[in-house]
Structures are given as C-alpha cells and as structure tokens.
Write a structure and sequence with these properties.
alpha/beta; four-stranded antiparallel beta sheet; single chain; 406 residues; seven-stranded mixed beta sheet; 2 domains; Aspartate Aminotransferase, domain 1
Length: 406
C-alpha cells in the first residue's frame, strides 16, 4: 500500500487553516508536533464520561480512568520494547525525565571527583541537569565533541572514559543537526567500562522504531508532544537494576507505602517515582497518539520523511549563499541553515508572513552554535503529515527572501 498523505492529513484539521491569508505550511514539528483528531477526541471522551483521580478511589469512574491510564503504560512498554512495565515512569516531559535521573541516580552513585560525559550536540535539558548534579557533588562534566559534518567523535570516547566516569548522556537524534547517533556502539563502549548511559530520545521516537533492549541503554527519555500526543507528558524508561537502587525524586502521595513521623517506606516501581496526581487525561490521550502512529506505521513514516529530507536538502543547496549545519550520513528530518547576509530571526519573520512556520534561534543548543561560531540558525523539520508541495512552497518563499537581501 502507498502512503496516502492526503487521507492522513485529514486527521489534522489545523493543517487546513490559513495564516496571514496564506495556507499554513507547518515545518516546526521538531519543536512540537500537531495532534490528530483521535488524540483530541480521547481527551474530550474522558472528561465527558469517566474522569476521576486514579489509584485512589473505589468508584466506577476512577476505576475506569485507572485502567485506561495503566493500559498506556503497557502500550509504551511494547512501543519501546521494554522488558518490564514497571520500567516505564510517567513524567512531565523529556526534561523532567532527565532531571529525575540527574537528581536520583547522581544522589546515589555520584561522588566528588567523579565525571559525567555529555556530548557537545545536546539540548540544554541534557546538559544543565548534569552540571547542577556535578556542582552538588563536586563532580565534573566532560565534553564528547562532534565534527563539522555533525558526527560524534566516537573514537574519542574510550580515551575520555576513566575509573571516575559514572554516566554518559547523549541524544539519539540531535534537534539541530538531525544526526542519528550510534547509540548501540556508544552503549557497548560504556558498558565495557562499567558506565551507565542515558539517551535523550525526544527527537527519535517520532521517527525511529525504538527497542531499548536492543540499544541496551540504561535510561531512555522522551516526550508525548513530539509524538503527536499532548504536552505535559513524558516518559522515563530505566532498567530495574538502577531504578530499584535509586532514591525517590519527589515526595508526596502515591510514591509511598507507609508514612509515620518516625519513618516513611516507599512504594514499589514504577510508583516510587510518580509523586502526586499525574496528568491523567493527557497520558490516556497519549495512548491514542501511539495507536495512530502504529496504525500509520513507523517504517512508512520514516521512509516518507526521508524522501522529504532528501528533496528539501537538494533544493536548499541550489540557493546561493545558504549554509546547512549538519550533514551526517545518518540523519533525521531536520535541516538547520543560514543565508548569508540574512539574520535567522528576520528570515523567520518574513517566512511567517508567507504562511510558513519554522524555528529560528539557538534551539536550546548553545554548545552547537558555539561549535560553528554562530548565534542562531533557521530550522525546518518534517513530520508524517508534510508534503513535497509544502517543500516547494517553502523553497519559493526562501528564494523570495534571498532576493530581498541581495
């Protein structure tokens, strides 16, 4: 069966709207993806029919909400091929998932003088939490660099690792460069030296089939809103051997077993790390997003996006004065670029008036900007619902902007 893009787009009503009297061309899915009607209807269905606080009541609606909530945990376990359902922790997003590990893992296993290796291409949310943990513990953050082409310098990893190295933090896919990093190779090198690995999978889960057991990552973090689900929901996968030993991240309801003024005992996994009332409705709606992605087919999505990426890259390169940042051999559907003599912000503002939504700025990746000696880039990113025709509109608009500044 072919990829019926016209039929697929009907599930995203927002894509048919206009902005500034121009058809919307949404090229900012790496920041946040649009939501299919199935997700929106699931939230409405829950609020209209059976909303109740989960795990804590003996009435029908709470029981139904609890069952649906926990069914999503099972769905995510299968989606990323985790071994145990209790290895799936719900959080507010990728950022909180990483902070959970930076707080809890480092509280238990990081000591003064220890080191954490972080790649140079990371989003701020996979740098700053480790810096904060290192400051608390008197430890050190060590940089794993990348090449000008956008490939991590994996050959340097063995020489960066030493007996003081406790963890490596790395993105599966760079949100600026689009590089698909060799996680299996990184994990193998790390585990050979007894080092744990956390993978920021925020940019990977919408585009790749994830098998955490095959990757052998110790921790894997991602968000719902980039996977066509609601915002305010994230997932932390962690191996039981680590989660069992790590102290709770937050204190409150649900994460306890018994409380007295003398002593508190903590709940079993995964609830030990899920203090307070979670984002019930959005978690359940996230399940609908996963169903939609699986029905469309991750391989179909990846093939379609790769065609768009290849086509758009070739067309952008035809425009005089354009520089693309990140041209690794294995790359996902992100193109970051600048036009000579045009500030990225000006470019973004002009394209917006032409109906094109894209990202401009440092993309919460200052270390990437510093690597290239720039302050910002423009970035387009593709999702399952983008079309070749939208690429053509973007290219024509980009050429118009180029001519304005000649």
């Amino acid at each position: 069966m072919g990829y019926d893009i016209k039929k697929l787009r009907q599930n995203f009503p927002v894509l048919s709207r206009q902005v500034y009297n121009k058809p919307l061309v949404y090229l900012d899915s790496a920041a946040s993806a649009q939501k299919p009607v199935q997700v929106l209807l699931k939230e409405e269905q829950l609020y209209n029919n059976y909303y109740g606080n989960i795990h804590r009541a003996a009435h029908f609606m709470a029981d139904q909400a609890t069952a649906d909530f926990e069914a999503v945990r099972d769905k995510i376990q299968k989606f990323i091929h985790a071994e145990f359902r209790e290895e799936i922790i719900f959080t507010k997003g990728t950022t909180e998932s990483i902070n959970l590990v930076a707080s809890s893992f480092c509280e238990k296993f990081l000591s003064a003088g220890d080191e954490i290796i972080v790649s140079e291409m990371e989003h701020h949310s996979n740098i700053v939490p480790w810096q904060l943990a290192a400051q608390r513990k008197g430890a050190k953050v060590v940089k794993l660099p990348f090449t000008d082409n956008g490939d991590l310098r994996i050959e340097k990893l063995p020489e960066l690792i030493n007996p003081k190295t406790k963890l490596i933090a790395v993105a599966h896919i760079s949100n600026v460069l689009g590089t698909i990093n060799p996680i299996t190779e990184i994990v193998k090198i790390a585990h050979t030296n007894g080092v744990a690995v956390l993978v920021d999978g925020a940019q990977a889960v919408p585009h790749l089939t994830i098998d955490v057991q095959e990757l052998d990552a110790d921790f894997y973090a991602f968000s719902a809103h980039k996977l066509y689900g609601p915002n305010g929901v994230g997932v932390l996968y962690g191996k039981k051997k680590w989660l069992d030993k790590m102290p709770p991240y937050q204190g409150g309801g649900e994460m306890i077993s018994e409380v007295s003024f003398e002593k508190t005992t903590f709940n079993e996994l995964p609830y030990k790390f899920e203090a307070g009332t979670p984002n019930i409705t959005s978690v359940i709606a996230f399940g609908a997003a996963i169903d939609f992605v699986l029905e469309t087919g991750l391989e179909n999505i990846a093939n379609w996006e790769h065609k768009l990426l290849t086509y758009a890259t070739s067309k952008i390169k035809e425009i005089e004065g354009v520089k693309i940042y990140g041209e690794a051999n294995r790359k996902s559907s992100v193109i970051s670029f600048n036009i000579e003599g045009v500030h990225a912000y000006d470019l973004g503002m002009l394209l917006d008036k032409m109906g094109i939504a894209l990202r401009t700025g440092h993309h919460c990746a200052d270390t990437v900007m510093q690597h290239f000696g720039i302050q910002s880039t423009a970035r387009i990113s593709f999702a399952m619902y983008n079309t070749k025709e939208e690429v053509d509109v973007f290219i024509r608009s980009l050429k118009k902007v180029r001519m304005m500044f000649k």
